Amino acid sequence: MDHGWCSNLPDCLSSVPLNKCTNLQATHLHVISGTAVVRRWNLGRQSPGKPASIHLYSSTSTDPANGKARLSEQANLRNGRKAKHNGENTIIYRIKFQVDPEFGVPGAFIIKNHNINEFFLISATLELLDNHRKIHFDCNSWVFPISKTNSGRLFFSNSCYLPNLTPEALRPLREEELHSLRGNGTGERKEWDRIYDYDYYNDLGSPDKGHEYARPVLGGTVKYPYPRRGRTGRPLTQEDPLTESRPEIMHLDIYVPPDERFSPQKMSEFISNSIQAIIHFLIPEANALLKNESGSIDSFKEIHDMYYNNNNNNTNKVLEGWVAEKMKKFVPEDLVKEINKIASNKHHQQVKFPLPQIIEKNEMAWKDDEEFGREMLAGVNAAKIELLMTFPPQGKDGKKSSIKAAHLEGNLEGLHLDEAVRQRRIFILDHHEYLLPFLERINKQEVCVHASRTLLFLRNNATLKPVAIELSLPGSKEGEVTTRVFLPATIGTEASLWHLAKAHVVANDSGYHQLISHWLKTHAVVEPFIIGTRRQLSVMHPIHKLLDPHFKDTMHINALARSILINSGGILEKTMFPGKLSMELSSALYKDWNFRDQSLPNDLLKRHLAFENEESPTRVQLLFDDYPYGADGLEIWNAIKKWVKDYCLIYYITDDDVLSDVEIQAWWSEIRNTGHGDKRNENWWYKMDTISDLIEALTTLIWIASAFHASVNFGQYGYAGYPLNRPTLCRRFIPLEGTLTFAEFLKDPEKYYLKTLPRRFEMTLSVALIEVLSKHTTEEVYLGQSRSMEWTDNEAVHKKFKKFAENLQMIEKRIIERNKNPKLKNRFGPGKIPYTLLYPDTSNLNSKGGITGKGIPNSVSI
Predict the structure, then answer these.
(1) Which terminus of the chain faces fewer neighbouring Cβ atoms within 10 Å, N or C?
(2) Which residues is 57 bridged to in the sheet?
(3) Chosen CATH of 357-506+727-748 out of 2.40.30.10, 2.40.40.10, 2.60.40.10, 3.10.450.60
(4) Is 602 a catalytic residue?
(5) Which member of 523, 541, 544, 556 is catalytic?
(6) So where are the chain's domains?
(7) Considering 385, 709, 794, 807, which one is annotated as catalytic?
(8) Is 432 an annotated catalytic residue?
(9) What is the pLDDT of residue 66?
């Protein structure tokens, strides 16, 4: 099998005359053969006589002159041949090193790119011809021209060492490489810089465009705490010296360290998926222009028509003009050009949005109270609901809810309220406490938002029945709150009011899901861990090897989010009810963020959805079995923890090994004191002085980046792709009896409901966004899979990883069986959507990507 240095070099490089390998003057020569596989990449014209050159570093012998690893003579890449590597077009290069016998065993190499453009090095393999030993290097990194970087690119072999066990010859290289990755914290970063540094979220606003585009800096203050992001170092704005400037024209090119960038294949797919979704979004707008319609949705049929093909020959012409005038305001210029190309193509077949699962088999499931409750246990935001411990609910200020026992007791299957509470059968979805302080400002933005408390009853068949909804608004006096309680009904005016109340609850939940459960609790909180890992843990460190797959593409997708999603005037502000206050709201909720509570068992205990059980592998037991997110999640959590424990125990024998690991201690200190510096004084941080602490922290981090993110992301289109099921904002309050709006409501409740929903623009833009976010890419690497079979040379690790994959496959089988069990009604529901958001999908080795509603990618990669 031909393995070698894998990288993406241009075809033309193979024809460049390269110098032959240097023969050392020695009586006996030690010959090392290597192959290099390079992904094909158009690098432009090359300079003759200036190839990529390589030196090997010894891991077993030092240079007496400087005490560092002995360095081989230079060898050059030449005469590459085209080949396929994991389905990609690559070029393989073969080279030989002839070194003197004292050189010993290679442990690293440095490659210098003397050409004018970068290339991508996938991996490299060396073979010692005298004993046929192979040494592999898993590279997966860009190599930029030395004219830009002023230094070569260093790669270590796939051997792992704790810092104190590093071969002496490699120790200086290990330390120097880490030092170079930290940079000096100054200057604007260029695309070739491999620098990892922290910054505040000071690049969301554009105050130079006007006051309405200014946004507070998040992070670094008591008022606006936030996790740190990767530093870009762009110039500051003129209007606000604390805010970093943004490009005048929105685009997709924003700095992240090269190794964190999407591959060319993924970037191409991302752009293609975005274009397709935007075209889907544009069709209703173009058709509305043709019909001279207003921006409101006027009928349910108008919403349903979003999901069926309409080959209107006039649509393309309208699209051209509409894109030119409207889209460039909030879509990157790169995408606008591509969309215009498609729009001007008369032969292009325009298609509508794909049919979301929620209406695929039951068009009315979204109106069902049982589905409303089920999605709190098995939807895209299934980690928010809590057990109600005392009645009535009350806030931190001691103020009690206006929901009374009399409101509930007719819907408790014959139980008195105190019995239902005692039997742990009353649950609450609480969007009241955190939201109320923001409502006055939010509702000045042409939205009509209530804070909500929803109480639900666990029926005998383990399904949740909503039994009361309390909607609140700030009163006319400071500290005053006005509340109304709505009860379930199936006919008449009460049924229409109940339907409106549910819409307001779901709008609250949609905003919380997107801004908190999804963005804050996965994307934002993980980024400081990535930066800290790159800065403080050498690639030779076993924990770096363990975590690396779980960081793939996260910094890049976060940078894109800052560019087009969460920025001032971005898509989230245009589609979610908090509007301009979206990121400020997420900052307020970060104040309550606790890393320990992100552990699934701890989270379930905190929400009283589980109780302690030392006999359980996860030490907790669910309050009731038919909680799909909890049941599947605990199995995934347990599998991750077992894998992490098995892995750590290969390298750490005692607690002292963790305490004396200088890189781990520096890593954890930096994450606490800098990456999540606004939480540095919290007492819940692990002390990181035991193997147990390390295992728990790593399991939590991997859970967040993989399974938890999958649970809140890849089911979005199935549920929220139909906006009636999960509206993102409301434009009308619930009408008050005796008012003109109530009379309007009574005259036509359906029309009033439609006017409560987002306008067509916000509605279709939101659907287009989640269509992109819900798609897997074809190069996705799922939990239990690895990008390379040779990511480590430790056979014990390979055996444990194989066991991890087998455990996940067994979990898949159990999930399938649970989904077939007719007694577990929450796994299917009125919408007939099987719960697969935590289905690992380990067999999906050659994925075609797309919206599947299942699969747990290793990382927050979209």
Answers:
(1) N
(2) 71, 108
(3) 3.10.450.60
(4) no
(5) 523
(6) 7-182, 357-506+727-748
(7) 709
(8) no
(9) 86
Q: What is the pLDDT at residue 291? A: 56
Measure the CA–CA gap between 401 and 392, rounded to whole angstroms.
6
Name the band, by pLDDT with cuts 50, 70 and 90, for residue 35.
low
Token pair for residue 184?
């000096």
How many C-beta atoms lie closer than 10 Å to residue 399's C-beta? 14
Query: In this structure, are residues 432 and 481 in contact, taking their beta carbons and an 8 Å threshold?
Result: no
DSSP string, 562-589: HHHTSSTTSHHHHHSTTGGGHHHHHHHH
Q: Exactly one of 113, 411, 713, 794 is catalytic; which is it?
A: 713
Tokens of 468: 């009361």
Angle between helix 333-343 and 315-325 (nearest 10): 160
Per-residue tokens: 440:
């006055």
Q: Do domains 7-182 and 357-506+727-748 have the same CATH topology?
A: no
Our answer to whether residue 713 is catalytic in this structure is yes
- 30 has a pLDDT exceeding 60: no
Render pLDDT for 718-764 as a digit per residue (tens, 0 to 9). Answer: 999 999 999 999 999 999 999 999 999 999 999 999 999 999 889 99
What letters, b where the CB count within 10 A reaches 16 and e where it falls short, cover 782-807?
Answer: bbbbbbbeebbebeebeebbeebbeb
Do 111 and 121 meet the contact criterion of CB atoms below 8 Å apart? yes
pLDDT tens, 456-510?
Answer: 999 999 999 999 999 999 998 888 999 999 999 999 999 999 999 999 999 999 9
Cβ contact 535:182 at 8 Å = yes
Residue 862 appears among annotated catalytic residues:
yes
Q: How many alpha carbons fall within 13 Å on the CB side of residue 787?
A: 20
- pLDDT at residue 24 tops 50: no
pLDDT at 279 over 80: no
- pLDDT 10s digits, 646-667: 999 999 999 999 999 999 999 9
- The fold adopted by the segment(s) 7-182 is Lipoxygenase-1 (2.60.60)
